[in-house]
Each structure stands twice: as structure tokens, then as C-alpha cells.
């Protein structure tokens, strides 16, 4: 599949195929309406091959949700084409009930948003089925897949940015127009999760706004009788994960508030895989990873509260380094340690500590290929150039707001 920028001078796809001049009315042009043709509107075209697998119904047990209105202003048009690039994107045709699920999301990105991948991964079993029914979620899924693939296909990046801006605009408009009792719907929540994943891929700072909205919606979701216990558990696990790694990097005050709770409050996402109960070695590795994250939380909290001294800082970083050495650098689930390694690197004073965690963080990029990691490495160089005069938390919360995870 390819994500192509629309030639704005030629109007909608349907008029171009009929070789007539489009009047470019939004959301559907008058010429298509007059002919009784479903108009795809103006915006970005996402093309996929007819040979890709298309499911006509969502997975059994997936949340049943109302699809967004077909009259909504469209930012994407999905068109079957014979020839497509490698690395198909997951898309929706824009019509409820149609879907195309590509390997970029289902196989790779979904596996990196949980610690240990498993069949019931909520991004595959909950989010992608919603994308099959809901245009807004489908657009968000297409955008982050395009961002992820843009490292190999740079032409996708500009179109993905434009699509993301349109989705963010719709979300902001929804939050302004809906009353408190109307605010929650699963489509919006799924879209927020997908866009937050996108920020880890791009290193953008939209997460500062998105995480606040997700936190509010997640609370409302817990009281929604339409949602299954499995869906609620997935929502809370992912929300707490983003809160743990996102709030401390968006605001020092929010970081301090986050750590008024024990780190374990946020760590349910570490143990969501059913395989842990039958694999003692895997279970032991996860316990070590949880300890690494806990120690990084304490390092952040002590720095944010101005309790850290040079001696206590060096001691805490060394203790964390010793814990990390108990793990194989290629252990399954290691991508969960991006935030912890960044915090330890930023706090490091001794050159050997900086080198150790910098290289571990660099190695994780080979695992995820998420763009926030190279930006994190650049931020570390900047922090170390200013550490004698500036608290590193002030830098990441004011100058370099990146969702590093």
C-alpha cells in the first residue's frame, strides 16, 4: 500500500475516473451526489492492492461500536490499485465493516507496544477490529503505519503528517463540542492510543495533550457497561503505561504527581502475557525488568524533588547498571526498558555510566526502529553538554518534549 498526496487541482477520485471537472465541495462534491455516486471527498489517497486480505466483519468478541458518520469530512481515500509498495498499511475503505490489515501494524508495531507478544494482544484483538468499523481509528492506524514505513519510503512522511494534523483537529473539535456525558466513546479512546503509539515512532510532542485526554477517557471507560472486562483491562494497562512514561517527560510537576503512587501501580502492562505462568525463565526476566523500571522511577523522583546529591546519584545509577547486567542485552521484552535507560543515561555523571546506558539505548533502536530513540540519544548529548548548569528534567520537560518509550 502507498499513501499518496492528492493533486488538489483535480478534485475527488470519482470525478477524475469519469474525466469530469470536480467542483471540490466538501465533504462530498455535488457532481457525485447528482449522479448518485458515493464521493470519497478531498484529502490524501491511501492505495492498497486488491490481493491483500480483506475481512468483511470484525473479530468475534470485539467491541461493537457506532461507526463515525459518513458525512464527516474525509482526510483519506482508499483506492484499490494493481501495483503497490512492499509493507502494506492497515486501512479502512471508509465504509463500516470493511478493512485491510497489514503487517506493519498487526505484526510489528503491535508487538512492540506490549512487553511479550501474544495472541490476545489488545492492539490486534481490540484496536484493529475497531479500525475495521470506524473511519477515524482507521485513519489513525494508516497514519502511524505510514510514519513507521517512512524510514524506508520517505515519500510517505509528508502525507502522514498531514493526515495526523487532520485527525488531531477532529479530536480537538470533538472535545469542544461534546458535553461531559457524551465525551466517552471507544472510537476516540482507540484513536488516542494509536496516536500515542505514533508519537513514540516520530518523536513528536502531541502526547502532552493526548495523554491528558486519554487519562480522562480511561476513567469513563471503567464505568461503561458495553465494554468487556478484557477491553477494560487493556485500556487501563495501556493508559497506565503511557502515564508512567509520558507524564514525567511532559512536566516536572506531573512527574512528581505520578510518583506519589508506587511504580507498581503502573506496571500491570509488564505481566499481561499468559505465557509468564508457564515459563519460569521469562517470568524471572520480567521481574528484573520491573526492578529496573522501579529504580529509574526513584532516580527521576529524587532528581525532580531536588533530593539527589552527586554521591547518591552515582550510587543509584551504579545500582541500576548492576541490575541491568543480569539481563541478556537481547532478552525478549527488552524494548520495555527504553524509558528506564534514558533516565539512567540522563542522570549519569561518570563517563562509564553514560557509555553503558547510551549504548544499551542505542541497541534498543535496532529492536524497535522507533524514531523517538535517535531523538533521545541526541537529547542525551545536549543534556550532558549542559548538566553542570541545568537539571536534565527541566530540559526534557521544556526544551525536548519527546515520548521516549
Keywords:
three-stranded mixed sheet; two-stranded antiparallel sheet; globular; 5 strands; Zn2-C6_fun-type_DNA-bd_sf; transcription cis-regulatory region binding; 405 residues; single chain; 16 helices; Zn(2)-C6 fungal-type domain-containing protein; mainly alpha; disordered N terminus; Zn2Cys6_DnaBD; Fun_TF
Could you say which structural class the secondary elements and strand pairing correspond to?
mainly alpha
Give the count of helical stretches.
Answer: 16
Strand content: under 5%
Q: What is the CA–CA distance across the termini?
A: 28 Å
Which parts are unreliable, with pLDDT below 50 for 5 consecutive residues or more?
A: 1-7, 44-102
Radius of gyration: 22 Å
Strands of the widest sheet, in order across it, are: 1-2-4
Q: Describe the global form.
A: globular
Description:
The protein has 405 residues and is mainly alpha-helical. It has a domain at 248-405. The protein is built from 16 helices and five strands. A three-stranded mixed β-sheet has the order 1-2-4.
Short description:
It is built from 16 helices and five strands. With 405 residues, it is mainly alpha-helical. InterPro entries: Fun_TF, Zn2-C6_fun-type_DNA-bd_sf, Zn2Cys6_DnaBD.
Topology record:
Layout: E1 2-5, H1 13-18, H2 30-35, E2 44-49, E3 54-55, E4 76-81, E5 99-100, H3 103-112, H4 122-133, H5 135-149, H6 155-177, H7 186-202, H8 207-221, H9 229-250, H10 252-258, H11 280-304, H12 310-324, H13 338-347, H14 351-368, H15 372-386, H16 392-399
Parallel strand pairs: 2-4
Antiparallel strand pairs: 1-2, 3-5
Helix pairs in contact: 4-5, 5-6, 5-7, 7-8, 8-9, 9-10, 11-12, 11-13, 13-14, 13-15, 14-15
GO molecular function: DNA-binding transcription factor activity, RNA polymerase II-specific; transcription cis-regulatory region binding; zinc ion binding
Domain Zn(2)-C6 fungal-type: 11-40
Subcellular location: Nucleus
